[in-house]
Amino acid sequence: MTRKERYQQVLSYFQQNMPVAETELMYDNPYQLLVSVILSAQCTDKRVNLTTPAIFNQYPTPQLLAQASFEELFPLIKSISYPNNKTKHLIGMANMLVNTFNGQVPMTVDELVQLPGVGRKTANVITSVIDAQPNMAVDTHVFRVAARLGLTIKATTPLAAEKQLIQYIPKELVHIAHHWLILHGRYTCLARNPKCDSCALQTMCAYFQKQQKKQPKA
């Protein structure tokens, strides 16, 4: 199977079997999504969704969040991983939104990465989810699944994986392909015990084919 054929088969499968795929983070506007994605770093979406309602209730706008003190915000996110840093990032992010971007979430990667707590992955998530831009956010799920399937080859960093993926995935599918790979990694292609036996991508998966070759012959 050529690499092009692998991409075609994988994408075709997801188009047919997962035509609707979107973030599992709960949000009502770009500001809320930005807060949620910052909090989601090394934390589950489920935990973030349990935490954000109180934040959005108390700080429904960037202007109000910018006025929050560390002592006021920290108790609302103390159950999230790295709460100290994320509290500082959220307040800093809100201040920059207000002072630099007129209270609006910018929609370019270059602008977003200027915000505290926002790296390339987060910027790619915001622009692809809100604006369907062809930006591929590579988190641990995407990085793992893409490598196992054989979509990426010898990609040792998220940026290297991102470049390979956007090279082969049609632009109009990049924003949803991000969710396909995440959800597949979250529920099927698990890190420690991938559910290969029940996975519908067996015939196009480089990892599965390699494992099969290791099996002793009857």
TrEMBL record:
<keyword id="KW-0238">DNA-binding</keyword>
<keyword id="KW-0411">Iron-sulfur</keyword>
<dbReference type="GO" id="GO:0003677">
    <property type="term" value="F:DNA binding"/>
</dbReference>
<comment type="similarity">
    <text>Belongs to the Nth/MutY family.</text>
</comment>
<keyword id="KW-0408">Iron</keyword>
<keyword id="KW-0227">DNA damage</keyword>
<keyword id="KW-0540">Nuclease</keyword>
<keyword id="KW-0326">Glycosidase</keyword>
<keyword id="KW-0255">Endonuclease</keyword>
<keyword id="KW-0234">DNA repair</keyword>
<dbReference type="GO" id="GO:0019104">
    <property type="term" value="F:DNA N-glycosylase activity"/>
</dbReference>
<dbReference type="GO" id="GO:0006285">
    <property type="term" value="P:base-excision repair, AP site formation"/>
</dbReference>
<dbReference type="InterPro" id="IPR023170">
    <property type="entry name" value="HhH_base_excis_C"/>
</dbReference>
<comment type="function">
    <text>DNA repair enzyme that has both DNA N-glycosylase activity and AP-lyase activity. The DNA N-glycosylase activity releases various damaged pyrimidines from DNA by cleaving the N-glycosidic bond, leaving an AP (apurinic/apyrimidinic) site. The AP-lyase activity cleaves the phosphodiester bond 3' to the AP site by a beta-elimination, leaving a 3'-terminal unsaturated sugar and a product with a terminal 5'-phosphate.</text>
</comment>
<dbReference type="Pfam" id="PF00633">
    <property type="entry name" value="HHH"/>
</dbReference>
<feature type="binding site">
    <location>
        <position position="189"/>
    </location>
    <ligand>
        <name>[4Fe-4S] cluster</name>
    </ligand>
</feature>
<dbReference type="InterPro" id="IPR004035">
    <property type="entry name" value="Endouclease-III_FeS-bd_BS"/>
</dbReference>
<feature type="binding site">
    <location>
        <position position="199"/>
    </location>
    <ligand>
        <name>[4Fe-4S] cluster</name>
    </ligand>
</feature>
<keyword id="KW-0378">Hydrolase</keyword>
<dbReference type="InterPro" id="IPR011257">
    <property type="entry name" value="DNA_glycosylase"/>
</dbReference>
<keyword id="KW-0456">Lyase</keyword>
<dbReference type="InterPro" id="IPR004036">
    <property type="entry name" value="Endonuclease-III-like_CS2"/>
</dbReference>
<protein>
    <recommendedName>
        <fullName>Endonuclease III</fullName>
        <ecNumber>4.2.99.18</ecNumber>
    </recommendedName>
</protein>
<dbReference type="InterPro" id="IPR005759">
    <property type="entry name" value="Nth"/>
</dbReference>
<feature type="binding site">
    <location>
        <position position="205"/>
    </location>
    <ligand>
        <name>[4Fe-4S] cluster</name>
    </ligand>
</feature>
<dbReference type="InterPro" id="IPR000445">
    <property type="entry name" value="HhH_motif"/>
</dbReference>
<feature type="binding site">
    <location>
        <position position="196"/>
    </location>
    <ligand>
        <name>[4Fe-4S] cluster</name>
    </ligand>
</feature>
<dbReference type="GO" id="GO:0051539">
    <property type="term" value="F:4 iron, 4 sulfur cluster binding"/>
</dbReference>
<dbReference type="GO" id="GO:0046872">
    <property type="term" value="F:metal ion binding"/>
</dbReference>
<keyword id="KW-0479">Metal-binding</keyword>
<keyword id="KW-0004">4Fe-4S</keyword>
<dbReference type="GO" id="GO:0140078">
    <property type="term" value="F:class I DNA-(apurinic or apyrimidinic site) endonuclease activity"/>
</dbReference>
<dbReference type="InterPro" id="IPR003265">
    <property type="entry name" value="HhH-GPD_domain"/>
</dbReference>
<dbReference type="Pfam" id="PF00730">
    <property type="entry name" value="HhH-GPD"/>
</dbReference>
<feature type="domain" description="HhH-GPD">
    <location>
        <begin position="39"/>
        <end position="187"/>
    </location>
</feature>
